[in-house]
Structures are given as C-alpha cells and as structure tokens.
Amino acid sequence: MLALRGKSWEAGLTVALVASLRQQSLTPETLITGIVDDEGALLPVGEIETKAHAARGLDARALVIPADEPTEVAVSGLRIVRVRSITEALSRIL
Fold first, then answer.
1. Which of 18, 61, 83, 91 lies 20 to 30 Å (CA to CA) from residue 39?
2. How many CB atoms lie within 10 A of CB 89?
3. CA 13/CA 79 separation, integer angstroms
4. pTM of structure
C-alpha cells in the first residue's frame, strides 16, 4: 500500500500527469520533490537531505528541488537541480 504524507509529492504527481497527457515517458533517472502553489511555483519541502539519499538509493542521477529550498545538500552521484516553477521543472524533466 502506498502511503503519502505531507505535500512534497505534488510536484511529482503534476509532472506525471502532464507526461501522461502529452503521452511522454518518464525515466527514474530524474526525480522531483516540491509543493506546487496556485500559481505553479515550487515551494520548499522538509527533509531534503533524506530525500536526496533516497533518490540516489533508487539510482536516480538528478533530483529536482524548489529553488528556495534552504537546505544545501550534496550526495555523491546525484545532481541537484533547483527550479522556481512547475513549468521550469517540466522543461528539465520532459
């Protein structure tokens, strides 16, 4: 059973929905976390370092995070990509 807590899944769900509507495929190489506000801006989320380590554990090569995320994180083999909006995230992922 899938259990989602908090709202940091919103960006991933939005990207998956747009990819589906565009009939485009997603790869597990790039993952995303973030809260999407009403204007499409990506808002900071908690536990970014934990999420970065989990992404790397899934063999991701990049993690897209909100540009205003205050946490600096460096995980070997994982590129951190900061974006301001879901539109910018889509252009990096799709």
1. 61
2. 26
3. 21
4. 0.92
